[in-house]
Write a structure and sequence with these properties.
Blueprint (H helix, E strand, L loop, with lengths): L1 H38 L6 E6 L9 E8 L2 E12 L2 E2 L3 E2 L2 E12 L7 E15 L14 E19 L4 E20 L5 E23 L1
Antiparallel strand pairs: 1-2, 1-10, 2-3, 3-6, 4-5, 6-7, 7-8, 8-9, 9-10
Amino acid sequence: MKAHLAYILTAVVTAALISAPTFQCAAGEKDSLRTERLFGGEPVRTAVKLSAAAVVGIVNPSVEFRAHKNITVALEGLGIFYPTGFGKMIDGPLIAAMTFVEGRYYPVQSFRGFFVGPNIGFSSYSLNKGIHPSFWGAQAHKYQVGCNFMVGLTAGYAFTLTKHWGIEISAGYGFQTSVYEGHYQSDGSKYMGWNGSSEWLPYKAAVNIVYKW
């Protein structure tokens, strides 16, 4: 009886040892197929994007080009046109046109995972500076008309959904310098001639829907 039990135990252990590599191989093959499905074939060379903010009328398209296995170059534009304010949240004009040039480094591979890189931007605007979190509530019943120059860093993460589709989140922080003149919201008259300011602050953020090829 003991010999019979020992024989059964030996058979079970042997079967487990033989099947373990098979299961591991199957799991590895499944991961390999998934990687091939999402990232196989020719490397992604171009991506076009549109921010989710488009649902509220903020147009923020961008295009990104592969320059190296881990490096890309991106061009971005942003347009906002609310001349009489934005609902009950923002009183006064909210009009802006912005453009950025950005370089990105991806540690894993271009268009995949975490990225960080420098950006340079320029904008022209007619708005109340008090809408920015750094100046929230300031300059009530006034607005500023001017332009600014920005330079800083962008960081974010690119999620791959399929071979051609993805979602990307990013934010930019840096130094900005601006020149502007001040106006009263009531009649548009000036309360201040040309002025200027410079500060470190966050000035861009986006959740983008991405199509790449």
